[in-house]
Amino acid sequence: MTSADPFAAPADSAAVDRDAAPQFVLPLVVRIERDTPPARTDALETSARAVLTFLSDPRTADDGEWAELLRGWEDGRIRKVVRRARGAEWRRAESLPGITVAGRSAMVRVYPPVPLDGWPKELAKLQVSGTELADPDPSGPPDPSLPVLWLNPGLEMSAGKAMAQTGHAAQLAWWALPASARKAWQGSGFDLAVRTPEPAHWAELAGSDLPLVHDAGFTEIAPGSCTVVADHPALRAAR
Q1: Are the C-beta atoms of residues 149 and 170 closer than 8 Å to each other?
Q2: 231 pairs with which residues across the strands?
Q3: Average pLDDT over residues 207-221
Q4: What CA–CA distance (Å, rounded) separates 71 from 22?
Q5: Architecture of the domain whose range is 24-238
């Protein structure tokens, strides 16, 4: 459950049967125009920032208009689904309540959670497949002062799947941080980087106590696969 504090993590729900609760999903739509698709890494970073922007929005706190939907989503399985849109599809998607977050080349719109089988028709008709994106230029090493979401180098994921996974990792980092660090991160516009480490570095990261995403295995990869480690400076300092 969420607290009245918009910067607070949900209460401990280890005793909650998440599968028995009503299931919701957090929809994200990435704009992919035919002639000007976004760079893959920028799309992954923008997706993570969109999730963080939604979690910190005042409408998710107290009696905000999205607070009940957020609570329902967090009581069940934390699912995110990324769909793609272009042209008129994107314009229709933008007409629905939500938040659009822009990156250098990417635009991602995040919406309040919807029932698993109750998507708005404007979003339900959008495709999940077809989110293959590329990076025209190498990203280079991340700034050591930035939070970094590290992708498992041993897994192959579509851009849409990876966007959902970086969103999961950003959310785990948000929950793990103290309120002061959350506020500072929000103040930076949720600066972060997404990178793929060398296998040896991944093994070290995955064996640490940093937040680690274990995928439920609904699509593309096996259940329990470790997909992303969230490496935030404030969490590194606490190790």
Answers
A1: yes
A2: 148
A3: 87
A4: 11
A5: 3-Layer(aba) Sandwich (3.40)
Residue type at 169 in one-letter notation: A
Bridge partner list, 124? none
Task: Convert the chain into a string of H (helix), E (strand) and C (coil).
Answer: CCCCCCCCCCCCCCCCCCCCCCCEEEEEEEECCCCCCCCHHHHHHHHHHHHHHHHCCHHHCCCCCCHHHHHHHHHCCCEEEEEEECCHHHHHHHCCCCEEEECCCCEEEECCCEECCCCCHHHHCCECCCCCCCCCCCCCCCCCCCCEEEECCCCCCCHHHHHHHHHHHHHHHHHHCCHHHHHHHHHCCCCCEEECCCHHHHHHHHCCCCCEEECCCCCCCCCCCEEEEEECHHHHHHC
The pTM of the full predicted model, rounded to 2 decimals, is 0.91
Token duo for residue 175: 């929950």
C-alpha to C-alpha distances, 183 to 30, 57, 117, 176, 189, nearest whole angstrom = 26, 12, 34, 13, 10
Q: Residue 216: its pLDDT value, please?
A: 78
Instruction: Please check whether residue 146 is in contact with residue 192, taking contact to mean a CB–CB distance below 8 angstroms.
Output: yes
For the chain, what are the domain ranges? Answer: 24-238
Which residues, other chains included, contact 142 with Cβ-Cβ below 8 Å and sequence gap of 6+? 148, 193, 195
pLDDT reported for residue 10: 61
Angle at 116 (CA atoms; ends 111, 117), nearest 5 degrees: 115
pLDDT in tens, 96-112: 999 999 999 999 999 99
